[in-house]
Design brief:
single chain; 151 residues; Ubiquitin-like (UB roll); two-stranded antiparallel ribbon; 3 helices; 8 strands
């Protein structure tokens, strides 16, 4: 691996107009990463990165995240084979959010419950009663029980 460093925050002008990545991590040291399919633009998932996960992603060209539930690094696809190859990383104007444009190996799915995208349901507003969810992806791409076998 290279010796890539993520820069500290600079002044507002440098952050907004400069050419140095100076991400703004939240109070937990994380930055949101919206992940999209490089070919279609479809939103696949949202993950969180700390500085080390972002550095690993830039160095390897494969997506790394920080798992808030496990409190550990998570290389997407390490278990499932659904490695995310990063083609481009974008940041917003104040560098407090990222977009990763990726291609997904294996079965092409991203969601750990078996769908291509983690956004496989839409919000439906009824005339009355509880707001509901409706599937926009009818079928799972794979059976998670087959990939994520408990040992």
């Amino acid at each position: 691996m290279c010796d890539i460093a993520i820069s500290e925050r600079g002044d507002k002008k440098t952050v907004e107009d400069g050419d140095i990545l100076m991400p703004k991590f939240d109070a937990d040291g994380l930055i949101a990463a919206v992940v999209t399919d490089v070919a279609s633009g479809e939103v696949l998932m949202v993950g969180y990165m700390n500085a080390e996960a972002l550095r690993r992603t830039v160095e390897t060209g494969e997506a790394w995240y920080w798992s808030r539930s496990r409190q550990s690094f998570w290389k997407k696809g390490e278990t499932s084979g659904q490695i995310q190859t990063v083609h481009e990383i974008l940041t917003d104007c104040d560098q407090d959010a990222l977009v990763l444009k990726v291609s997904v190996a294996g079965n092409g799915a991203t969601c750990h419950v078996g769908y291509r995208s983690c956004f496989y349901r839409r919000v439906v507003t009824p005339a009355a009663g509880a707001v509901r969810l409706e599937r926009v992806e009818a079928e799972r791409v794979y059976d998670p029980a087959e990939i994520y076998k408990k040992s």
